[in-house]
Amino acid sequence: CFGFPLSIFFIVINEFCERFSYYGMKAVLTLYFTRFLHWDDNFATAIYHTFVALCYLTPILGAIIADSWLGKFKTILYLSMVYAVGQAVLSVGSVSDLTDHNQDGTPDKIAVNIALSMIGLILIALGTGGIKPCVSAFGGDQFEDHQERQRSTFFSLFYLSINAGSLLSTLITPTIRASECGIHTKQECYPLAFGIPAILMAVALVVFVIGSKMYKKVKPQGNVMLEVSKCVGFAITNRFRHRSKEFPKREHWLDWASEKYDKRLIAQTKMVLRVLFLYIPLPMFWAVFDQQGSRWTLQATAMNGDFGFQIQPDQMQIVNPILIVLMVPIVDSLVYPLIKKCKLNFTPLKKMTVGMFLGSLAFVAAALVQVQIDKTYPVFPAAGQAQIKLINLETVPATFQFQPQLLSVDVAPNDATGYMTFETSKLQSLHIISASGNKTQSLELTEGERYTFPFKWVSQEFSPDLIQDNITSKPESGKSLVRFINNLPFAVNVTMGDMEFGQLAPLSVSNYKDVPKPGRPYDISASSSQFHCGVHSKKFGYGGAYTILIDDCVENQLNIKYFEDMAPNTVHMAWQIPQYFLLTCAEVLFSVTGLEFSYSQAPSNMKSVLQAGWLLTVAVGNIIVLIVAGASTIKEQWAEYVLFAALLLVVCIIFAIMASFYTYIDPNEIEAQFTKEEKEEDKKDQDDNEKETEVDSRM
């Protein structure tokens, strides 16, 4: 078809579906950990990066299985089945109704959900990692030797399918996740957010199987990684056996393998190890880069995503693939030629060094954004403290005196204070003075809690009592919370949109409830058997908490007043764009250049070894993050960002020093030299054989 083997179209479609499946699932994974499984940020980050590390460790296993045992086709087929099962298990594990026997919206046995989720993620890591080194190589196998141009076009289409799958899934699955679904209670729709990627993986598998009769299947020919590993292992063992001074030293420690392995393999291994030595500092870059899906996503949950339409926190990751698609051609066709025209020697290793520096700057930018976010966070009571908020429901002012002589506060009619912090061991009582009367209320507060005290005189007593808010952090769902106080003299049923707050007696307070879509207004209704009043609410924003006072009803129009218990997110998500821009620039300079440099410095038959080494640096980078997240005692997130920026800067300097001692080589010239020597040796052997034959014939 158009000069291409028909089979490659099945491979490209398969790759698109698989990448959609992987990136779609990965986009919502961190919020699944924190919001559904209720893990804290550090533990969620550690598990997320453990999963990513596994995804980049298993390609080595996949390559060995494909090259030494099953072949690429069977490896892709079998591991895709494992992959699809893993996605399905993860989707089932995210169903809250699975063990929600009391139908309250929360799993009764969360351990079942956790176990299924972890089994699913392990299977996904084995599947996606195992097929990673096989699919592109299998596509390359479909072409004949004379089809170089078509093969090059295929790899471009292949790369495009990866980016298209990543872009679409990162846009779509967070939107699905933010929608509500459920059998008994409506909540964020993780089963569907994981279910769609599972369906796409099943489609990828079906498409791959449909094309099976058209594929060119190359038999396993042995894995060069194993040969290199054996060569290195033998050299080390042989050197250890001959460590005595009576044995002469050899030019290079790998030369101790010459008793068993030919000179060409030893020389190729030397070239590979020179590049792998430069890989040692690289994991630190990936430790920074892969936090887009963990720490940066969690940072976005505390930000305002209103762009005229609502952007979900996990959708901000889409900025990276969009910028990659835009920047790669710009850098290749404009920036690099301009640098070359200025006669600057911008070598691949220098590009990688600049990329690491820009990655460090990206985390400095993230730290600056985090400082601004922290300024908007409410102050919650520390150990030994409690907080009280006063709401005066009277039509006259009131004075509140916290005893013994701690604080005196004047509160206007139908007004409220902010939260005031007190030492629980010192605060004993509250004395209220107003035109309606005076009263002293004894206080017994639990440390670490927030309380609201709505005040109104009723029959020479004030009512209601002190109310515990049960909020000690920003809303876990990322949405806003709303509750109502009924200041009417009779009981009413209160609803807001589809949310029912139940019947509120006079001066009673409802529980907080999540606002499903805080970015839009709702109809608020208060009604009884002979009474109905309504009003449109305001937009609540994300991450806030509000108390709404139902005060009066005039001509069926409800009079309400808002008290802000917690400010909504105000720092805009657009402030994350600079850090994404810097990190994408870093990726273009570091990742794209790094692979190009690696391939240019190694023999053609050793590229798989370098790919394995490169993927291993990604895995180690993620292990660094999970160690820091699990062991760090840093409490401020901005300080952790600064720590990573500083570590990457130090590693950048070390890499620059290592790179300055590196001498670029041309592997083709070295291999040509070996080929020439081998031909000369073959010719010499042939001449010797001819002479021996001639001598024999004379005898």
Automatic annotation (TrEMBL):
Domain of life: Eukaryota
Compartments reported by the entry: Apical cell membrane; Membrane
A GO biological process held by the record: protein transport
Subunit field text: Interacts (via extracellular domain region) with trypsin.
Name recorded for this polypeptide: Solute carrier family 15 member 1
Phylogenetic lineage: Eukaryota, Metazoa, Chordata, Craniata, Vertebrata
GO cellular component, one term: apical plasma membrane
Gene for this chain: Slc15a1
UniProt keyword list: Cell membrane, Glycoprotein, Membrane, Peptide transport, Protein transport, Symport, Transmembrane, Transmembrane helix, Transport
NCBIfam families in alphabetical order: 2A1704 (TIGR00926)
Entry-linked InterPro entries: MFS_trans_sf (IPR036259), Oligopep_transport (IPR004768), POT_fam (IPR000109), PTR2_symporter_CS (IPR018456)
